[in-house]
Amino acid sequence: REVDKNKVWTKRAVPSGGGRQPYETYLLVNRVDELEQGVYRYLPIEHKLILVTENLPNADDLMEKAWYQNFIGKSAVVFVWAAIPYKTEWRYSFISYKDILIEAGHICQNLYLACEGIGAGTCAIAAYEQKAMDELIQVDGENEMTVYVSPVGKINLR
């Protein structure tokens, strides 16, 4: 299909109903070479990370926000996906939430595949304190809200 050369758009590695791409990706960086600790947002058009805040909670506080799933506090980085429902709602109305939630699975599955490729591990988490996670990535919880969280770290094979 043709795309107007003046429009900015991105090709992504996951399908999105109507090409709406309602997700933003945030990273809680704890121990990553060449990145300072903090909360980052991924900008897909520029293919870069921007620092949202240097205020990253300590491991215990992060575990509390994730209902005491201790591996989240030990991870090198935590991927947080936030949805902006309006990006899909204006086109798909009442069925938009179904598409938005299905897309979360597509996105996170790609992280599982990437982790496998580098010998790391991840675990998709949907159990977390909603308001606390939204505040951590600095979204309002209404127009944009956390939907899925996935810590990444080395696999401890015993």
UniProtKB/TrEMBL annotation:
GO terms for molecular function: oxidoreductase activity. Gene3D superfamilies: NADH Oxidase (3.40.109.10). Residues 12-154 form the Nitroreductase domain. This is Nitroreductase domain-containing protein. It comes from marine sediment metagenome.
